[in-house]
Amino acid sequence: MFTDPTIIYTLELATLAAIGILATAALYAWRGWLELRKLEFSPPAGEHRGSFPGTAGSRIEIADLKERIRKLEAIAAGVDL
Predict the structure, then answer these.
(1) C-alpha–C-alpha distance, residues 44 and 30, integer Å
(2) In the chain, where are the structural domains located?
(3) How far is C-alpha 30 from the chain's CA centre?
(4) What's the Cα-to-Cα distance from 10 to each of 3, 19, 23, 45, rounded to whole Å?
(5) How far apart are CA 2 and CA 23, in angstroms?
(6) Contacts of 65 (CB under 8 A, 6+ apart)
(7) What are the tens digits of pLDDT across the range 4-42?
(8) What pTM did the predictor assign?
(9) Cα angle for residues 53, 59, 62 (degrees, 5° grid)
């Protein structure tokens, strides 16, 4: 069927080219996904970590989370509140 060496070499080169194209596309998509994740975890523009105390709502939310953690730790230790 495919006994001609020229056809075999052409198919091999086409397969290698397809693998290279797919690998390049996958690498490009991976880098884009990493950039997206980096943007999701970075602070909003204009807000600097440490130097800006945050809004009142965020401070209330943090205090609420700390209270929940304290209660969960007490439950885990077997202490009645």
Answers:
(1) 23
(2) 5-43+55-77
(3) 10
(4) 12, 14, 20, 52
(5) 27
(6) none
(7) 888 889 999 999 999 999 999 999 999 999 999 998 888
(8) 0.47
(9) 125
